[in-house]
Design a protein that fits this description.
This protein is globular. By secondary structure, the protein is α+β, with helices and mostly antiparallel strands. Strands 2-3-1-4 form a four-stranded antiparallel beta sheet. Helix 1 packs antiparallel against helix 3. The chain has a single domain, classed as Alpha-Beta Plaits, CATH 3.30.70. Pfam families: ABM.
């Protein structure tokens, strides 16, 4: 079963450009992971400092491999002082089966 999540955080005032640079570099690395299917980065139209990252991994093993990637820790350390939250807020999603 695919592992899908939404990661959210808000850049501190004056840090948006640095956060955008960091997440751009990180996105390029994550998209190269064998088990990553989607890593799309968005900002909220009405609040451009609010970042939303929609992530999909092939399965739980692929997600665990993502968590162990060597660039994840340094990314989170660099990101932490630039965002309002203590860390990214993660929301795990399950697909809804809808019959046509």
């Amino acid at each position: 079963m695919k592992k899908t999540l939404l990661a959210e955080f808000t850049a501190r005032e004056g840090a948006r450009d640095e956060v955008a640079r960091l997440i751009g570099d990180y996105a390029r690395a994550v998209r190269e992971e064998e088990g990553n299917l989607v890593f799309d980065v968005y900002t909220r139209a009405s609040a451009p400092r609010a970042f939303w990252i929609f992530e999909v991994y092939r399965d739980e093993d692929a997600f665990q491999a993502h968590l162990k990637a060597p660039y994840g820790g340094p990314f989170n350390v660099a990101l932490a002082p630039l965002i309002e939250e203590d860390a990214s807020v993660l929301t795990f999603l399950d697909p809804l089966s809808v019959r046509a």
